[in-house]
Amino acid sequence: MRQVHPPARLLMGPGPVDADPRVLRAMAAPLVGQFDPFMTDTMTEAMVLWRTVWDTANEQTLLVDGTSRAGIEAALVSLLEPDDRVLVPVFGRFGHLLAEIGARAGAEVHTIETAWGTVFDPGQIEDAVRRVRPRVVAVVHGDTSTTMAQPLAELGRIAHEHDALLYVDATATLGGNPFHTDEWGVDAATAGLQKCLGGPSGSAPVTLSPAAVVTIERRRHVEAGIRTADDAEPHGSPIRSNYLDLAQIMEYWGPRRLNHHTEATSMLYAARECARLLVAEGMATATGRHARHGAAMLAGVRGLGLEVFGDVAHKMHNVVAVRIPDGVDGDAVRGALLDDFGIEIGTSFGPLHGVVWRIGTMGFNARRDAVLTTLAALEHELRRAGFATEPGGGVTAALAVYEEASP
Amino acid sequence: MRQVHPPARLLMGPGPVDADPRVLRAMAAPLVGQFDPFMTDTMTEAMVLWRTVWDTANEQTLLVDGTSRAGIEAALVSLLEPDDRVLVPVFGRFGHLLAEIGARAGAEVHTIETAWGTVFDPGQIEDAVRRVRPRVVAVVHGDTSTTMAQPLAELGRIAHEHDALLYVDATATLGGNPFHTDEWGVDAATAGLQKCLGGPSGSAPVTLSPAAVVTIERRRHVEAGIRTADDAEPHGSPIRSNYLDLAQIMEYWGPRRLNHHTEATSMLYAARECARLLVAEGMATATGRHARHGAAMLAGVRGLGLEVFGDVAHKMHNVVAVRIPDGVDGDAVRGALLDDFGIEIGTSFGPLHGVVWRIGTMGFNARRDAVLTTLAALEHELRRAGFATEPGGGVTAALAVYEEASP
């Protein structure tokens, strides 16, 4: 077999998308030892940079060595003791995932649901909190399955007034949509690098409020083999996972540097570089860039004569769901886009599989050339599939948005 | 902040060690979509290559997206139901880790221990199996904390005769010491890339025997959000982790390609390249290379007048523990080696912390120049620390081993 040699692709689906080439190059840097001063300095720098990305003063802002899903599970298994109640407002596939992970952690899971393509009014969530009295409210910020972004600004207050902690899965939104951890009262939030953050999947940024840290620390249990007489027994039930035990992971990232996993150095380099590039750009500039290219793509697909799915007022900046026109084979068009143009767009899950395409504009691919190329190619494939669309309608509509944006 | 720019290092500790530059370059390849034909082909190629590394015909030979510790937990949490008995023969720090992870999975953990620096006679393990009647025997192959390698050849037979499965943590040995999954009757084995395999930490190769697959499949539980009417409820208790649920991970790597985590593409490229390079070299050649450079380092440290720790007859090829001479400050010598020469060697854990140095010769650093440079530098630092050592004694002794090996 030969060296890995991927075909040329432009990844315009709901993520993962093309990583920023600077992030890929950072991963090629040589390794250092786990307790090398350069290693611990790099971890500390990553914490500083990610605090800016998360817009937080949280000391405990670190990385879990796994994909975004590992970050979700680390937060939930560390916060939730068996039989704790967790409330999950579900508005798409990834809300179901939070419920699933909560159940596997042994928690008593309560869900409320709203139709795919809509979000919750904060009052609906407050009513459910009052009824369920959960230990944790766990909510997805942007659910790529529907492209909706749940407004979060009031949820921290709601949770705290009822003695609950607020956990947010920001995998699909962070870096491309405003996210204000402290201002919104978010107690725990997690992400992955492969959406708006410009990196590959495999490292999960996490931030924890002081209140979340107190909850997790109560359950701290130093593992056999490195425990000393000074290590107290846990007060709560021990965290069910060793690998995803945030109490131990905090001690590995903290001044004690207590041996836990062997840090995935190349992914640490990648995560540091993702944050470094975003901080250099400025978070408001980065989310503004996603808003602009998202608006251009939205206008573009409408210019092609396609109908947009869901409550567009609550759409994430970085992905749009378009209804597959009647009589058009959605998977055939996606396959032709990939074969003819090397462009990937997505389908969706469950009730939306085969009903919508999801087109992303995020991370390194939140770019004018990527938006216009995708619209031009999609126009050709739609016409070949028998859908009547005005020549140049998509590109023209997107260009109009760009002209408005920079007069 | 600037781009990541690590200092020049030669990592001659117990791992992680320098990654092969070809593996680092593979990680810089562009990403593709999760269900791109190139992606699924790459996953399938990785399975084929890793079967050769593991010396197995096991269909279920795949990667877990996390460090070696994630692989251990995936195996144990997927194999062990709460209250199942697991027997862990402990001969160092990482045996304690298996016990810890087993306990967090809810299992009833039984351990037997032998002094650090020794291994078990298979009869001792058989006696314990007869007494405990475990569901799983979980053992470390090579425990870097002591440098010992437990002989495994009889353990599969012992486990199977008593209706147990055999799990082996091969993190520190695979690729540098013979490992024969099928011949030895190993039911589940896991590793990480950062020791003899030439890569960075962050991807965990796993192989599962048909018997292990049956045990895990019984507990298969497709998660909410993607479950269909055809998916049966689990027969055993559902696996407690979602992220490390090998039943779901097998379906993601198998023909159904059921959405689970977002595969860490760059780490997949790295893991494929690690295996590709080993298979191209030949597994017997690779383990022979580790044996040769390990023997040279062993002779070299003795040539410096240092005493070797533990039962050398059972030493792993890829690491040696040497007693820190009386009156020498071990951490000061390690620090000076790093500052003056950019060379890292390790200390150890628990009873061996400050008692031994651990010097590795593994992966990309199982090389003659790395061995000789380390011995020359160590000689200087020993002399500066006041330890009388014969000029050139280490390098000369190592060279003699190389001359014998290639007459």
Structure description:
Chains A, B: Its cofactor is pyridoxal 5'-phosphate. Chains A, B: It comes from Promicromonospora kroppenstedtii. The structure is a homodimer of 407-residue chains. Chain A has helices at 21-27, 37-54, 68-79, 93-104, 122-132, 155-161, 210-217, 246-253, 265-281, 283-303, 330-341, 368-384, 393-405, and strands at 10-11, 60-64, 85-90, 108-113, 136-140, 142-143, 148-149, 165-169, 188-190, 204-208, 319-323, 343-344, 356-360. In chain A, 40% of the residues lie in helices and 13% in strands. In chain A, helix 1 packs antiparallel against helix 9 (265-281). The N and C termini of chain A lie far apart (53 Å). Chain A is globular and about 75 Å long. Chain A folds into 2 domains: 18-279, Type I PLP-dependent aspartate aminotransferase-like (Major domain) (Aspartate Aminotransferase, domain 2, 3-Layer(aba) Sandwich), CATH 3.40.640; 283-405, Aspartate Aminotransferase, domain 1 (Alpha-Beta Complex), CATH 3.90.1150. Chain A is of the alpha/beta class and 407 residues long. Chain A is built from 13 helices and 13 strands. In chain A, a hairpin with a 4-residue loop joins strand 6 and strand 7. In chain A, the strands form 4 sheets. In chain A, strands 2-10-9-8-5-3-4 form a 7-stranded mixed sheet, sandwiched between helices. The first copy, chain A, has a two-stranded parallel ribbon with strand order 1-12. A two-stranded antiparallel sheet of chain A has the order 6-7. Chains A and B meet through helix 1, helix 2, helix 3, helix 4 and helix 9 of A and helix 1, helix 2, helix 3, helix 4 and helix 9 of B.
